[in-house]
Amino acid sequence: MSATEQEQIAGWIHGRLPDDWFTEPADVSVDRDEIVVIGRIAVPDGAEGSTDEAREAAVGRITRFREETRDQRIRIAREAERRFERKVSWGAACGETRALFTNVAAPVMTRLRQRERRVLDTLVEAGVARSRADALGWCVRLVGEHADEWLAQLREAMTSVQRLREEGPGL
Prior knowledge:
four-stranded mixed sheet, 5 helices, Smu12A, alpha+beta
């Protein structure tokens, strides 16, 4: 997917969101299967910081936002799904608390050699994962947590290459 396509989708989403929903522009991330929209909502008065009370207040505020905006979010999602042929998932952040309301778990097919399958089977046998699929997801999340900076640099480089291709002479 091109950087331009991602920017177009994010721009459309930002244009459709009501101005009073979020305290700052929503974070819109896009891949070939899904559009994820996460917005920051206002922290309740007196519930700032990382105390248990603040976390519970944030959870309550997120729950209220989810319930009060459900119909509008569904309308926006249906429009976007027709227009961009991707599912739309929603979430909210309040203070230090973040929640995804919905998201896509897309199946991914892969071929693994015995050595790689043994890693997954070890995770299953040790009770870390319920299945090979769970174990593979666990591995991907672990790599993602420990390679965030490197992956961000790689994505940035890919975006630069895509922009240069778009700006270059047509073939």
